[in-house]
Structure formats: C-alpha cells, structure tokens
Write a structure and sequence with these properties.
Elements lengths: L24 E3 L2 E2 L2 H9 L15 H8 L9 H5 L1 H5 L9 H11 L9 H7 L10 H5 L6 H18 L1 H10 L2
Antiparallel strand pairs: 1-2
Helix pairs in contact: 5-8, 6-8
C-alpha cells in the first residue's frame, strides 16, 4: 500500500487497487476503521506512581522510543491473519495495539498492570508470529520481535509460571 511506489511497478500491465479486506467497506476504497478507535479506548492509559519524581534515563527512553513512531496507518491490522482470516475482532486487538500496550508496559514510570487484559481481552496468544505486521510497517517498527514476543513472555512469566502461582497462593497476592 503506502510502501509501494508506482515507479517500482511494471506499468505495462494495469495496476489494480482494492479496498483493504480487514475492515468493512464504506464506499469505493474507503473502509470503516472505527473498530480500531474503540479498541484504543479499552486500553488503560499511562499511569505513573502518585509520588513519582519522573526521573527518566536515556536507556528507558530508547526502550520505548520505537513504539512512539507508530502513525496509526493500520497496515499492520490489515495484513494480520487473525483479524483478516479468522474474524478476530471480538477476541484480538491486533498488532497496532500490541505496539501501544508494549510501549505502556515497558515504560519505567508506568504502574498499571495490563497483563490480564493482554492475555484475555487483547488475545496476544492468538498471534502466530509470521511477521507480516513488521514487514508492512512504513515506520519500520519491529512489531513482532519488540512488542508481541516480549508481551507474550511477560504474560507467561507473571501469570502462567507455576512457581509464581504457588507463591501467590501462599502469600495471597
């Protein structure tokens, strides 16, 4: 889509443009992406500690900087097989919102716990890691390697680790 230039194509054949398939068609090439904005409202916003002194080191900024480059073009949502082929809109947030969740979860000053949301409502484990979302990103965000896989690891470490489950049962937290 926005990564393909016409001068890179063989123009001896007609260029055919279709509307994106992931979202409902409104008219011609215009699709309804309002579902994305509804999902965005579900995600808990940045939540700093009440007594935070907002000390922010360069390595902390570097860790989340990549996620801030997202221009919300929704190309990653468009190529996502879970959203496109499996009608995953009711159980899967999609790559764009995993980028947002990763940026919040990896922020050193954020205190909100979104792990149950990432696991259950966002459906991070439905992603099959084929890296299509990374391939189409015009901002070269490494969606799979730097957002989706670390979120899966975080959920597994915090929620599914059997030793932590036993510890939580004993301690009560």
């Amino acid at each position: 889509m926005c990564k393909t230039r016409l001068d890179d194509l063989d123009l001896s054949n007609p260029v055919v443009v279709h509307p994106i398939k992931t979202f409902p068609l409104i008219k011609d090439l215009v699709t309804d992406v309002s579902w994305n904005f509804e999902v965005n409202k579900k995600i808990k916003g940045f939540t700093p500690a009440k007594d935070s002194d907002f000390v922010y080191h360069q390595e902390d900024a570097d860790r989340v900087q990549e996620f801030r480059k997202c221009i919300e073009c929704f190309l990653c949502q468009t190529v996502c097989q879970v959203l496109r082929n499996h009608d995953g809109h009711d159980k899967f947030y999609g790559p764009r919102f995993f980028v947002r969740l990763a940026g919040l979860e990896m922020h050193p000053l954020d205190t909100a716990n979104r792990l149950q949301e990432i696991d259950r409502e966002a459906g991070v484990f439905l992603c099959n890691i084929n890296k299509c979302c990374t391939t189409v990103c015009p901002e070269d965000i490494h969606v799979t390697d730097n957002a989706i896989i670390p979120l899966k690891e975080r959920v597994i470490d915090q929620m599914l680790d059997p030793i932590l489950k036993i510890f939580r049962a004993i301690v009560g937290k």
